[in-house]
Write a structure and sequence with these properties.
The chain is mostly helical and 347 residues long. Helices cover 50% and strands 5% of the residues. Strands 1-2 form a two-stranded antiparallel ribbon. The protein is globular, with a radius of gyration of 29 Å.
């Protein structure tokens, strides 16, 4: 018995010693095994932009190392957030055809669709400095280009009307600068600020200008979105066609007078208040105070049982105003979506 006890006392420390040696060997081997696993499963994407890249028909000087590296940096930054890219791709399917049609009608290059993406990711964003909507207009500029910004209406959140206003701004900027890359820069920092920088530096080429940090990156961000959207497979971006957001078919009711309570108005038309506000994000209050002499087009879904996915639209987070005294409404007028879309462009 004493012999067994002495053996146990001897074996326990020996067992601990061998266990420690085995653990040490495992720890030494684990990083090597991890590295072998990673090297066998990791694919590194090529961030190089496609050869012959252009912006609005003008060649991007990728032979310049600084230009190429800055564009690659923007591509790398965007690809850090694949879920965000996927979401923007889904949204683009809903809006791209209509936005591009508006741009073409005003002789604005299609590449400015990517400016809207760079500004807002095609969502009704509200910036800390007060810029709003898909095209991120400040209120004074929005009013200057014909958008209503009032107590109960903010047409910066109307995707089509805001796009028409953006085309007017871009045309004016092109009249001033005569170069689309400079037009894009002016959209970010303002025409006056860009003109002062050009005069001070005696340079008329965007890629030669020393601008503030945000504007210096701005065109590169637009170009990065263009690369991703036009060559998604090149950068490892895939999306199921079935998950793309589709345009929502709608009818239109013309309204020329106040609507005292939008919730009651929605119920009278057989839709929920949520649906009304989702299809008309420019209605930012609980009521509508109509601008005298103006006709408003309020949209309703043609299909009453749309799913949440089909109605998925980013609505602005805006404080809602109080109701108004009762007023009469114009009779319902229903039109096909294509005709309704064209009519909003003239408002």
């Amino acid at each position: 018995m004493k012999l067994l006890s002495r053996s146990i006392y001897f074996l326990i420390p020996l067992g601990i010693l061998f266990a420690g040696m085995s653990l040490g060997n495992m720890e030494d081997k684990q990083p090597v095994q991890d590295l072998r696993f990673i090297s066998g499963h990791l694919s590194v994407l090529d961030m190089a932009p496609p050869e012959g890249l252009t912006f609005c028909g003008a060649r991007v000087p990728l032979e310049r190392e600084d230009v190429r590296l800055r564009l690659e940096k923007e591509l790398e930054h965007l690809l850090r957030y694949p879920a965000g890219i996927q979401l923007t791709l889904r949204r683009a399917n809903r809006y791209q055809d209509q936005f591009v049609q508006i741009l073409r009608s005003q002789d604005i290059p299609e590449d400015f669709f990517y400016l809207a993406i760079a500004e807002s990711n095609l969502a009704n964003q509200s910036s800390p400095v007060g810029a709003q909507g898909f095209w991120q207009f400040m209120a004074p500029t929005a009013r200057q280009y014909g958008l209503e910004v009032s107590e109960t209406v903010d047409e910066r959140f109307h995707p089509e009307k805001a796009t028409w206003a953006a085309t007017a701004y871009l045309k004016d900027a092109y009249e001033q600068f005569g170069d689309w890359a400079l037009v894009a820069a002016s959209y970010n920092m303002g025409g006056s600020g860009l003109s002062r920088a050009m005069d001070r530096q005696q340079v008329e080429d965007y890629f030669e200008l020393d601008l503030n940090a945000e504007t210096s990156r701005y065109l590169y961000r637009i170009l990065a979105y263009k690369c991703l959207f036009e060559n998604p497979n090149r950068y490892g971006v895939t999306i199921q066609r079935a998950r793309l957001y589709q345009p929502i078919p709608y009818s239109v009711q013309l309204v020329k007078k106040n609507i005292p309570d939008l919730a009651s108005f929605a119920a009278s038309q057989g839709v929920t208040y949520e649906t009304l506000k989702t299809l008309n994000p420019w209605l930012t209050g609980r009521s509508l105070i109509a601008d005298p002499g103006k006709t408003y087009e309020i949209r309703f879904p043609l299909v009453q049982d749309l799913s949440a996915t089909e109605l998925l639209v980013d609505r602005p987070a805006q404080p809602e105003t109080d109701s108004l005294p009762a007023a009469t409404l114009d009779p319902l007028e229903v039109r096909p979506p294509s005709e309704a879309s064209i009519s909003t462009s003239d408002a």
